[in-house]
Specification:
By secondary structure, this protein is mainly beta. The chain has two domains: 6-49 and 255-409, Immunoglobulin-like (Sandwich); 61-245, Oxidoreductase, molybdopterin-binding domain (Sulfite Oxidase, Chain A, domain 2, Alpha-Beta Complex), CATH 3.90.420.10. The chain is 10% helix and 29% strand. The protein contains six helices and 20 strands. It has helices at 34-43, 71-76, 104-113, 141-147, 180-184, 242-245; strands at residues 26-28, 85-90, 101-103, 115-123, 130-140, 158-163, 175-179, 194-199, 202-203, 213-215, 228-234, 257-263, 268-270, 276-283, 289-298, 316-317, 319-320, 357-365, 370-380, 405-409. The strands form four sheets. Strands 1, 12, 14, 17 and 18 form a five-stranded antiparallel beta sheet that branches. The chain has a five-stranded mixed beta sheet with strand order 3-2-11-6-7. Strands 4, 5, 8, 9 and 10 form a five-stranded antiparallel beta sheet that branches. A hairpin with a 6-residue loop joins strand 4 (115-123) and strand 5 (130-140). The longest helix has 10 residues, at 34-43. The radius of gyration is 23 Å and the shape is elongated.
Length: 410
């Protein structure tokens, strides 16, 4: 991910000021705009609210690929649900009191008593598209650790999580690390860190990191490793995660971000006189989402070196579109009990849901013929316009404002 500087915004030429839309252009921001509603109905099949398991992405660089193993190899590696076990260790050693091994059936029993259910979007902190978004279900890590007899767990400072080590030195074992407080005490308004057993109502497949995957609600994908096999409680107070060693910010939470536009399509042509539907997707970080904005500017418009974050574009508020009326209703156990869902009616108690996604859109009419750029950004719950307040390279998806979509009215 390139650092954001004035010179990195290659789509803008170095002219000193912004040329606004032609005077006759106007924005119809109501979700009732028929063109917007029609478009969203069209994309429901290709961009569903809940990403199917087979379509959910995962970053595999330098990672084991257990789905390529034979059934015997999967069982030998302990990645079959019947044979899966989780070791819970103290500074790499087994507690002398024993009781450190947890089986898949133990997690199922715990999840039946105290389930954790979360609609979450997973994103690569170095990418610019969601890997997928859906309902993850499991059991809080603190409840799992509580099942082990850990009388020797004195002075613990961090909890480290380790994925499958396939013994291949070319495959860096994937790990994640959290402060002890995040595992045992949830920040206000946050669900617990949990071990996920199901995704969208089904057991997690190997391709999705099964049979057990760590889910950190506010974490990027690298913070949520799959193929989980070991938990180590440690007195060490500094993280030694593989991603941190690669220079990736592993401590900052997911950033609120307008991720991409569904429409207009890149390099598309809109007939003169036709409305331009501008619709996109945003991920919701721990700072929440106040609103999304779009700016339609003529191609070649520049901001000058004094505006690297594009604050001077003619930004217009888009509409945060409501959730579907049946979010999660077709899943085997429905959305009941999921974080942020109203237990009385099964609908989101607030929207957008924290850690999930939402759609935004507007309709722009009466654009004069010409070539344009559709720019987009989010405004978080603290009124920070993307990419602020954290515009740093390798610290989350921060560069979306430099990815405008070109289109033409002809």
């Amino acid at each position: 991910m390139a650092a954001l500087t004035g010179s990195s915004l290659g789509f803008l030429s170095a002219v000193p000021s912004i040329r606004a839309l032609t005077p006759e252009a106007d924005h119809a921001s109501s979700p009732a705009a028929p063109e917007l509603l029609d478009f969203l109905k069209e994309i429901d099949d290709t961009a569903p609210w809940l990403t199917p398991a087979q379509a959910h992405g995962m970053t595999y660089t330098k990672k084991a690929e257990p789905w390529t193993m034979t059934a015997d190899q999967i069982r030998a590696a302990g990645l079959d649900r019947e044979y899966w076990t989780l070791e819970i260790l103290i500074d790499g050693k087994q507690p002398t009191a024993g009781g450190n091994t947890v089986r898949f059936s133990d997690l199922v029993s715990l999840a039946a008593k105290r389930p954790v259910r979360l609609f979450k979007c997973l994103t690569d902190p170095l990418g610019s598209e969601p890997l997928g978004h859906g309902l993850w279900e499991g059991v809080a890590v603190r409840d799992v650790i509580g099942q082990a007899r850990l009388a020797e767990a004195v002075g613990m400072r961090r909890v480290n999580f380790f994925a499958l080590d396939d013994g291949n030195p070319k495959n860096t074992p994937v790990d994640s690390s959290l402060a002890i407080s995040r595992v045992f005490e949830d920040p206000e308004g946050f669900p617990p860190v949990f071990l996920a057993l199901k995704y969208n109502g089904d057991w997690i497949s190997l391709r999705n990191g099964g049979p057990v995957r760590l889910i950190v609600p506010e974490g990027y994908e690298n913070k949520c490793p799959g193929f989980l096999k070991k938990i180590v409680m440690t007195r060490a107070c500094i993280s030694s995660e593989y991603a941190a060693k690669a220079g990736i910010d592993t401590e900052s939470p997911v950033k609120t971000c307008a991720m991409h536009l569904y429409s207009p399509a890149p390099d598309s042509k809109v007939a003169h006189g036709k409305p331009v539907v501008v619709a996109g997707l945003a991920q919701i970080g721990s700072d929440g989402l106040n609103r999304a904005q779009v700016a339609i500017v003529p191609a070649g418009t520049g901001t000058g070196k004094d505006d690297p974050w594009l604050t001077k574009l003619p930004w217009q508020d888009a509409t945060i579109l409501p959730p579907p009326g049946n979010l999660g209703a077709d899943l085997p156990s429905g959305p009941a009990g999921a974080f942020g869902m109203d237990p009385k009616n099964g609908h989101p108690a607030q929207w957008p849901l924290p850690f999930f996604i939402c759609r935004f859109g507007t309709v722009v009419r009466n654009l004069a013929p010409g070539k344009y750029m559709a720019c987009f950004r989010s405004i978080d719950g603290y009124e920070n316009a993307q990419p602020l307040p954290r515009p740093f390279d390798r610290s989350g998806v921060a560069d979306q404002i430099s990815h405008p979509v070109p289109f033409e009215v002809a």
